[in-house]
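Suppose you are handed a protein chain with no further information: no name, no annotation, nothing but its sequence. What can you learn? This example shows the usual starting point.
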Amino acid sequence: MTLRIEYATLPAYSPSEPSPAYSHRPTRDERSLQQTCRRVFLAPTGTFIRKSGKLKVTLFEQEDGIDVPIYTQNRDISGVIAIEEPHKISKVTLKIEGKLDTRIAVGGSKVTDLMRFSSTLWEKGNGSELSGHLPFSQSLPSTFIHEGSQKCLPPTYCVHEGSAFNFAVKYTLTISLSQGRHSVELLKRSDKIEIPFNYHPRSRPHRPILTDAHFLPTIKSCPEEWHQTSSTIRGGKEVEAYGPIHCD
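A reasonable first move is to predict its three-dimensional structure. Written in structure tokens, the prediction is:
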């Protein structure tokens, strides 16, 4: 008995025509199925002012009338410090801190340092004289180190569930003035300003996954930008030996 196997002959291959030039603008016979309009970020032009005693801090690029300054990712904290009687000051210090505070009724409390940065803006004896206005600028990091690995800096967030559970991510900016030892007058609390600020890495929330009856569109790299439809074509008896055809 001889078994003879016949193979179907593949059609002759010919190179396809080059794809047309791409343009993000649809032509007359095309239409856009979905489009995300990206907002051009413009930094606010207002200021945030906090004053206490002989010290006043003005922060730039803030919305007028806000209660708490806001900073986004890769933004600089910049402003100017107004000081009364600068000749009595020996040191000006800037400090930025970020903390994650977790309190659970049955598990106790834990405080994790997300960021701790301190910088001397001016110090007596460095060759320059302190004027009544001292400008400053300090960039915010976008990551922090936790248990040996690098993590993204979390946004400001706060949850209070009575005494059972409390969770808070807080950031603060502190400007401190120090007087020389020769000064008889004691340094008052008003010569230190602590300003809480909100850190929002994104200016808008993440886009949700589009609802679709099929599973494959949800695992594509960009499901919000592309649409994929899957179907199975079952042929007649003449092509039954080749099985169903899966189309994506």
